[in-house]
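Below is a filled-in request sheet from our internal design queue. Each sheet records the structural input a requester submitted and the sequence that came back. We keep these sheets so that new team members can see what a complete request looks like end to end.

REQUESTER: design group, bay 2
PRIORITY: normal
MODE: inverse folding
CHAIN LENGTH: 337
BACKBONE (tokenized):
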């Protein structure tokens, strides 16, 4: 199994971002040494109460520190973008990183983002579907003519093409059941957000398998991945003491943003952290982390586990300690399989 690391993109308002970016590069170097295979950068706009680095310039700089690792947008808010801009920008990034880009895209859900971009939220699915079709065609066809509801192109040829042929892999994020089923047809793989309970993840993976079979595709596809909040320390008590305050603050913000409203019914983030973390997060010592990672791999069939172990305000030293501990006591365990 491959392991990815979600880069620390979000930070509290007022923190010195030049220093935080320097720390991000330190995280990249240590993650590579620890044995991580993949680095991903997420995207939001107007992300109060946090400052939020944007993924494409971050990944372009990170490529210089990440030799041999794949880089991914995890995820790009495709419904807010023009596909020509996305196609040429990601093609440039694929060249910069030597053909190691994984394109992760998703719908988005925050009203403030759609309003600021002048995109009615009710159009997000139709815009996403059109943009995804155009993106694929721009990367694989010499000239593209497209007449859609949102985008119109006439004999458009990219001046900048990706290094990978026929194109970089496209993984699609999905949280609700209908979108999970669509992903089987639309993307090369589903990238699971991992915010839901384990029972919901198992049920949705079953839906995904059925939809793949109906589309004549095998399970699991390459790049089938799960993102997971994880924190590790020398013992359970220390891990929870260090992680829980920052996880709680992050999920309070998610609740304010309405992120849990796009999950299946009953998946609410408006709970105390002691309840919220049950079966959603992996927080503990090395033995517990190994046990839970193995459980997710065996019962969900994931090919890659993308770990997020930084939340706004968490001290940088603790992030580095957690990465080092994963490299010493967890990742090697799975490398032996």
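RETURNED SEQUENCE:
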């Amino acid at each position: 199994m491959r392991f990815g690391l979600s880069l620390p993109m979000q930070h509290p308002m007022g923190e010195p971002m030049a220093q935080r970016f320097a720390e991000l590069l330190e995280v990249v170097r240590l993650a590579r040494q620890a044995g991580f295979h993949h680095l991903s950068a997420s995207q939001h706009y107007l992300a109060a109460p946090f400052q939020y680095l944007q993924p494409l310039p971050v990944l372009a700089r990170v490529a210089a520190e990440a030799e041999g690792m794949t880089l991914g947008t995890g995820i790009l808010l495709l419904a807010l973008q023009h596909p020509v801009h996305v196609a040429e920008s990601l093609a440039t990034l694929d060249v910069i990183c030597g053909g190691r880009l994984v394109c992760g895209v998703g719908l988005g859900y925050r009203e403030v983002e759609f309003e600021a971009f002048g995109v009615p939220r009710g159009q997000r699915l139709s815009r996403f579907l059109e943009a995804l079709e155009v993106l694929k065609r721009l990367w694989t066809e010499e000239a593209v003519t497209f007449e859609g509801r949102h985008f119109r192109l006439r004999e458009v040829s990219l001046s900048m093409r990706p290094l990978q042929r026929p194109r970089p892999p496209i993984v699609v994020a999905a949280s609700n059941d209908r979108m999970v089923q669509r992903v089987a047809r639309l993307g090369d793989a589903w990238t699971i957000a991992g915010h839901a309970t384990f029972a919901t993840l198992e049920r949705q993976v079953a839906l995904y398998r059925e939809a793949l079979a109906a589309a004549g595709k095998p399970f699991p596809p390459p790049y089938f991945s799960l993102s997971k909040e994880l924190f590790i320390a020398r013992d359970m008590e220390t891990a929870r003491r260090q992680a829980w305050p920052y996880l709680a603050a992050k999920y309070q913000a998610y609740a304010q943003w309405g992120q849990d409203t796009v999950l299946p019914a009953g998946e609410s983030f408006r709970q105390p952290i002691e309840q919220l973390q049950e079966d959603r997060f992996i927080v503990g010592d090395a033995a517990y982390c190994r046990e839970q990672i193995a459980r997710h791999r065996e019962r969900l069939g994931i090919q890659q586990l993308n770990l997020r172990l930084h939340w706004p305000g968490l001290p940088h030293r603790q992030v580095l300690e957690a990465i080092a501990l994963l490299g010493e006591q967890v990742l090697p365990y799975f490398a032996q399989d």
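SHEET NOTES:
- DSSP finds twelve helices and 14 strands in the chain.
- The mean pLDDT is 94.
FILED BY: M.R.
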